[in-house]
Amino acid sequence: MHARETDSGTGLVRRLIAAQFPDWAELPVRRIASNGTVNDVYRLGDDLAVRLPQAEGGSRDAVFEHRWLPLLARHLPLAVPVPLALGAPAEGYPFNWTVCRWIEGDNPAAGTGDGAFAVALAEFVLTLRSVDTTGGPPAYRSEPLAARDAPTGEALDALHGVVDTRAAAAVWAAALAAPAPQGPPVWVHGDLQPGNVLVSEGRLGAVIDFGCMGLADPAVDLIAGWYLLPAVTRRVFRARTGADGAQWARGRGWALSVALMELSYYRTSNPVMAATARHVIGEILDEGDG
After folding, report:
1. Which residue, 154, 182, 180, is CA-closest to 250?
2. Bridge partner residues of 197 (DSSP)
3. Are 188 and 87 in contact (CB under 8 A)?
4. To the nearest 5 percent, what fractions of the chain are helix, strand and coil?
5. Burial of 214 (0-12, 13-18, 19+ CB in 10 A)
6. Helix (H) or strand (E) segment spanning residue 204
7. Are 95 and 216 in contact (CB under 8 A)?
8. 152 φ, ψ to 5°?
9. Contact call for residues 175 and 252 (beta carbons, < 8 A)
10. Residue 174: count of CB within 10 angstroms of its CB
11. Which residues contact 240 (CB under 8 A, 6 or more apart)?
12. What is the pLDDT of residue 38?
């Protein structure tokens, strides 16, 4: 999916664990099938997971999560994969990697969250926003929405004939015209979409993959409304988060920009990501630019 990806395997994981965390060396290792784009994931015994980044950006995320996620986790209402150990490059593998607690659950399909899911999602977002921001780093998506105009335009050009780019451009223009955030940046997850949440028995149980977290416009986490919820429960989510018209418009712009770039980039390399992005674009265009 990316240039200069690094391969991994169960043999490599066993060697890394044996050399750096020998207390876990006897635990069985098995690879977990995933549609993710940053990490290879392995189950270590029954209770642990090993995440090996595929590229340099994921290595930075591993160190970042190890630093900040334990501080956030104590405040959050849902389970999160707090890192238990940070591994170093070794055995020919060039990146930092992590061991965290295994969390049971499944990724939901895009746009399927019911009312209870929407409420739980909103409570997670609001709680995260309320955490003290002192010393917090900028999020991966901390730039003003307008800073994404050029790459979003490039994605629109690449998707001509694939989606209704005229309608999408109108929605994007409306988002750019929305008032800027009035308050200071807050903690955001930064990537609330199906691959980064887990459901158990139909209920939202966990939020995973915090590599994009940091301080940003609170509208960034509103992308969850289009990635995870249908229109009827999206309204519940908006009401619970208290998003006014400007914040909601920016959130829609963020969701559209992210989905356009994902569809453009992953259209032939990751069918699941591409299908999710198509779904999000369709949901947004069904709403129009208002």
Report:
1. 180
2. 207
3. no
4. 50, 15, 35
5. buried
6. strand 203-207
7. no
8. -65, -40
9. yes
10. 16
11. 118, 119, 122, 123, 126
12. 78
How do residues 220-259 score in pLDDT, each as one tens digit?
999 999 999 999 999 999 999 999 999 999 999 999 999 9
pLDDT level of residue 58 (50, 70, 90 thresholds):
low
pLDDT for res 5: 53
CA distances from 141 to 30, 64, 220 (A): 33, 15, 7
Contact between 205 and 199 under an 8 Å Cβ cutoff? The reply is yes
What contacts 207, CB < 8 A, 6 or more positions away? Answer: 76, 78, 79, 80, 124, 189, 192, 196, 197, 198
Q: How far apart are the first and last CA of the chain?
A: 35
- Is the Cβ–Cβ distance between 150 and 260 less than 8 Å? no
Are 251 and 225 in contact by the 8 Å Cβ rule? The answer is yes
User: What is d(CA 81, CA 247) in angstroms, rounded to the nearest whole number?
Assistant: 29
**Taking 50 as the threshold, does the pLDDT of residue 2 lie above it?**
no
Which tens digit of pLDDT belongs to each residue from 264-290?
999 988 899 999 999 999 999 998 655
Q: What are 186's strand-pairing partners?
A: 216
- Are 254 and 141 a contacting pair, CB within 8 Å? yes
Average pLDDT over residues 186-193: 98
Q: How far apart are CA 1 and CA 267, in angstroms?
A: 10
pTM over cut 0.85:
yes
DSSP state of 178: S
Query: What is the Cα–Cα distance from 223 to 189, expressed in whole angstroms?
Result: 11
